[in-house]
Amino acid sequence: MENIKSKVIILTGATGGIGEATAKLLAQNGAKLVLAARREDRLQSLADDILKSGGEAIFLPTDVSSANGMQELAQAALQKYGRIDVLVNNAGIMPNSWLNELKIDDWGRMIDVNIKGVLYGIAAVLPAMREQQAGHIINISSLMGHKVVPVTAVYSATKHAVRAITEGLRQEESPTSRIRTTNISPGMVATETAISVLPPEYQDAVAPGSGMALSPDSVARAVVYSINEPDDTAINEITIRPTLQEI
C-alpha cells in the first residue's frame, strides 16, 4: 500500500458505516486523514481511535450541503498538511419513499446532500489539485445510480447525477491536470443508513451476516484499491454488490 502512505485524504460522512470503515483502513495504511461529518462527538471518538492505533487524523464538523463548510474543510487540510491528495465524497442520505407521498422536503435534502454536496466537495479541492497537477476524487454513488426500482426514484436520480459528474470531471481534468476520478457504486450495504429505510419485514434479511448485504469493510477495500493504484492508472468505475443480490 505504498501509494497510500502519507497521502492527505479528506473523507466526508466519516462517522457512518462506510466512512468509518474507510477511515480506519486508510489510517492503517499510513494516510493522513481529514475527517468530516456532522456529529462532532463521533468525529472526536473516531479520530481518537485512529490516533491510539498509531494513525494520523484531524477532523472538522461539516455539513456537505454548505459550500462554505466544504471550503473551510479544504482549508483545514491545506493549513495542516499543505496539500490535498484525495477527496472521498462519501456523505449521502436515502430517505426513500413513493413519489405520490409527496415528501418534497426529503427530495430537496437528498439533492442538497447527494448532488450539491459532491459538487461543493469538488469545488473545494479542485483549485489545489490543479495547482499540484495531481489529485484523486472518489465519489461514492450506488447501484441505484445504474437502475431505478420503486421508492428509489429521487435517490436513484441523485446517484445517476453523481456518476455523470464523475465522468464529466474525468474528461475535463484527467488529460490536463492528471486528476484521477473514481465512481464506486455499492449494492446493499449493512449500514444504519441503508437498513433503517427498509420496511421492518426486510431489515432482518439484510442484517450483517445475512449474505444479502455487503460489509462496509468491502466498500472500504474498494476505496483503498482505487487509491493505491499507481498514479498513471485510474480506476474510474467500480460496481460492488453482495454475491446473493439479484438486482
From TrEMBL:
User: Where do the TM regions start and end?
Assistant: none
* Entry-linked Gene3D superfamilies: NAD(P)-binding Rossmann-like Domain
The molecular function terms of the Gene Ontology recorded here are: oxidoreductase activity, acting on the CH-OH group of donors, NAD or NADP as acceptor
Keyword terms, alphabetized: Oxidoreductase
Domain Ketoreductase per the UniProt entry, residue ranges? 7-187
The similarity annotation says:
Belongs to the short-chain dehydrogenases/reductases (SDR) family.
What PANTHER family does the record tag this protein with? DEHYDROGENASE/REDUCTASE SDR FAMILY MEMBER 11 (PTHR43115), DEHYDROGENASE_REDUCTASE SDR FAMILY MEMBER 11 (PTHR43115:SF4)
This protein is called NADP-dependent 3-hydroxy acid dehydrogenase YdfG
What's the source species' lineage? Bacteria, Bacillati, Bacillota, Bacilli, Bacillales
